[in-house]
Amino acid sequence: MSSHAHTHDHAHRVDGAHRHAAAHGHVHGEPGHSHGLVDESIKRSRAGVRAVSLALLILGVTAVAQAAVFALSGSVALLADLIHNAGDAATAIPLGIAFALRSARAERWAGLAVVLAIFSSACVAGYEAVHRLIDPADITHLGALAAAGAIGFAGNWIAAAVRTRAGERLDSPALIADGAHARADAYVSLAVIASAAVAAAGLPIADPLIGLAITAVILRITRESWLTVRGHAHPR
C-alpha cells in the first residue's frame, strides 16, 4: 500500500471514530466536550425533587399541627397562617413535577403556580378576617395558639432554608421565590403569637385585625414572588 493510501485510510478511521465519539457526547481532548451533561441534568432533577419534597414534608407537618390548634382556639389569625402554610406546602407539587420533567418551561410555569397559590391564600385569609370582624367570636386555648405560632415560625424558617439553598445551587428562580415566600411566612407566623398575647390581655378584636395584617403581608409576598419569577422568564 502506498504511503498516500495508508495516510488516507488512517485519517478515515480516525475521523469515523471521532464522529462516533461525538455522537455519544464524549469527544475527549476537545475543548468544551459534552461528557456528563446528561448526568448533570439528572442530578439537578433529583436535587430539585428532593428539595421540594423535604419542604412539602416540613410544611405539611406544620399545617397539620396548626389545624389541630385552630380547631381548639378558633383564631382567625391562626387560620390565615394555616391557609397560607397549607398553600405553601402545595406549591411543592408543581415544582416537583417540573424538576422531574427536567423542563425549564415547566419550571417557569411552576413558578407562576407558586405566585397564584400565594395570592389565593391571601384572598381566603382576607375573607375570613373580614367575616370575623363582622361576626366576632371568642378565642380559647391561648397557650396552644401561641405554640402554633412558634411551630409555624420554625417550620417556615426551615423550609425557606431548604428551598433557598437548593434554588441558588440549581439556579432555579421558582425555588428562590418559594424560599423568600417561606422566609416571610416565618415572620407572619409570629403574628399568631401576638394574637394570643392581645387576646390574653382582653382584646379579642385584635385577632381578626392581625388576620388582615397577615393578608396584607401575603399580598406583598405575592408581588415580590411575581417579580422574581417574571425577571427570570427568559428560556435557559
Would you spell out the secondary-structure blueprint of this structure?
Elements: H1 3-23, H2 37-73, H3 76-90, H4 92-101, H5 104-134, H6 142-170, H7 173-200, H8 206-231
Explain what you see.
With 236 residues, the protein is an all-alpha fold. It has helices at 3-23, 37-73, 76-90, 92-101, 104-134, 142-170, 173-200, 206-231. It folds into 2 domains: 1-35; 38-231, Up-down Bundle (Alpha-lytic protease prodomain-like). Helix 2 (37-73) runs antiparallel to helix 3, helix 5 packs parallel to helix 7 (173-200) and helix 6 runs antiparallel to helix 7 (173-200). It is elongated, with a radius of gyration of 26 Å.
Characteristics:
mainly alpha, 2 domains, 0% strand, 8 helices, elongated, Alpha-lytic protease prodomain-like, 236 residues
Instruction: Decide which structural class fits the backbone.
Output: mainly alpha
Work out the strand percent.
under 5%
Instruction: Count structural domains.
Output: 2
Radius of gyration: 26 Å
The helix/strand order is HHHHHHHH
Q: What is the subunit arrangement here?
A: single chain
CATH class of the largest domain: Mainly Alpha
| Total count of strands | 0
CATH architecture of the largest domain: Up-down Bundle
Helix content: over 70%
Major sheet summary line: none
Q: Could you please say which CATH topology of the largest domain applies here?
A: Alpha-lytic protease prodomain-like
Distance between the terminal alpha carbons, to the nearest Å?
53 Å
From the spread of the alpha carbons, the general shape counts as elongated
| Low-confidence residue ranges | 17-39
What average pLDDT do the residues reach? 76
Please work out how many helical segments DSSP would assign.
Answer: 8
